[in-house]
Amino acid sequence: MTRTALVTGASSGIGLEVARLLAARGYRVLGTSRDPASIPADKRLTGVEYVALDLADRDSIAACAAEVGDIDIVVHNAGESQSGALEELPADAVDRLFQTNVFGAVQLTQKLLPGMRARGYGRVITVGSMLASFPLAFRGSYVAAKAALKGFAASARQELSPFGVWVAHVEPGSIATGIGERRTKYTADDSPYKADVDMMITHLDANERGGIPPAKVAEVIVKAIEADPPREFYAVGSNAPIVFLLKRLMPAGIVSSVIARKHGLKR
């Protein structure tokens, strides 16, 4: 039986590599983009069908679900990266981030679940960030959104596993996807936080440029899809096994200080 997979944000980065790998392994792959028509011909993957999806728009989510029909596997990869001091984050920017990174994934999953449950098979893979486990200053909105997505995934796994539908959460560390160039930033030139924000961004961008390639994350995601059943949680990149071990062994305050200093902040 050929399984059908829906990969959100399939036009670049991790989503592109997941779509590429699944197509090469014989899956029917539907890849989403806010504007599929804008994807250049030489960037379109062989064996991938492109569909429109804007996770910030609930009507777009409903239209996408109706268009794709029965889906066996959904990989929630699309999202926005955001930075800014808590005091200065615009309310509409935070609302958009949560709709795109959390609520959109939940709403799309809700529309796909009845079919998965009826067929007795499904895989829901959410792609988070290690920042949810290791919060960083001036990334609060992004940290909170990824932590919320992780919570939804963990709870949904318990609800859905009796029906053969398994949910797994993948937490990448620093990945060289170029996402730093697309990150939305909210810091005024006269902000009292500007020096610290700039320092953090400089270190964050350097970490991402030196991160593992997105294809490595894609391999972990496909491993989760094909496991029977998948684990609840996968972490990849940024020396994941070591840093999670240290997180368990060290006091939380020390972990926070280490993360801050790693990004040029004195805390």
UniProtKB/TrEMBL annotation:
- The answer to whether UniProt assigns keyword Magnesium to this entry is no
- Which Gene3D superfamilies does this UniProt record tie to the protein? NAD(P)-binding Rossmann-like Domain
**Start and end residues of each Ketoreductase domain:** 3-173
Q: Which family does it belong to?
A: Belongs to the short-chain dehydrogenases/reductases (SDR) family.
What is the protein's given name? Answer: Putative short-chain dehydrogenase/reductase
SUPFAM superfamilies assigned to the protein according to its UniProt record, in alphabetical order: NAD(P)-binding Rossmann-fold domains (SSF51735)
Q: Which SMART domains match?
A: PKS_KR
Could you tell me one molecular function GO term of this UniProt entry?
A: oxidoreductase activity
Which UniProt keywords are listed?
Answer: Oxidoreductase
**Which Pfam families does this UniProt record tie to the protein?**
adh_short
Organism (species): Gordonia spumicola
- Example of a GO cellular component annotation carried by this entry: membrane
